[in-house]
Structure formats: structure tokens, C-alpha cells
Design goal:
The protein has one domain: Mannitol-specific EII, Chain A (3-Layer(aba) Sandwich), CATH 3.40.930.10. Helices cover 47% and strands 23% of the residues. The chain contains 6 helices and 6 strands; from the N terminus they run H-E-H-H-E-E-E-E-E-H-H-H. Strands 1, 2, 3, 4, 5 and 6 form a 6-stranded mixed beta sheet that branches.
Amino acid sequence: MDIVDILSPEAVIPRLKAASKKQALEDLAKHAAEITGLPERAIFDVLLERERLGTTGVGNGIAIPHGKLAELDKLHGVFARAEKPIPFESIDDQPVDLIFLLLAPQNAGADHLKALARVSRLLRDAAFCERLRATNDAKALHALLVQGTASRAA
């Protein structure tokens, strides 16, 4: 499972303008709805439900909100780079500026976990995250994310 399989160039938001966690999740749900064809509200509700279990703000300015939807037929990702760091109730209490949303079919099982692990490994690389933070061009961000996983797979 490579990022290129789940993240289209249209799924990159180079300047997310959200000022709160709720607003960020709403904006991500709206963008994901455009990509998946699913109702924005259904996506938002799944993300909110997951956040109630515990924050997806994993620390170091990174959040990986995720959820499963029965109507999906494949995994979908949305990557956002926030214009300003967003309070996200992260495990390290630091605001978030890099967000990778992952949506999976209800029956995805291991594929969902593999994709989460892949995204997590990629975003744990501090130097890689600095390169993501240094650009606000959607095409460049997409290229970095796709190349980042390809180079780690080798």
C-alpha cells in the first residue's frame, strides 16, 4: 500500500485555513466528500466519532484523523498543510499543521492498518515533515508525499 494508491493530486490542501480542530475536520470532510462522492456529514460524523475515542493528534505537529465508511470501495487519503498551527488536543499538547486524513471501507481490516502505519512512518521523519512545511504548492506536496513513501519502500 503506497501513498500514490490512496492520495490523488486533488486530495492535497496546501493552505488549510481552519482555526480549530472541529473546523479542520469539517474542512477535511468537505474535501473528502468531493473526492469520494459521499455525504460530507457522514464523513464528518465518522471523524468526530473517532476523535471521541482519543485524539488523532499524534504529536510533533501531526494529526492522522481516520475512519471507516461502509459506502467506500477503496482507501482514500486527504493531506492538508495548515496555514497556521491548529489546537488539536494532541498527545503532546502542541498544535497541528500537518494533517493526513485516511478513510477506509468498513471491511478494510489489515489494509486500513497498513495504510495508517505507512502514513505514520512517513510523518515521523522530522526532516521530511520540514520539507512538507517548507512548501505551500499542492503539486509539490503531492510529489513529496508520493516520493517519500516510494523511497522508504526501497
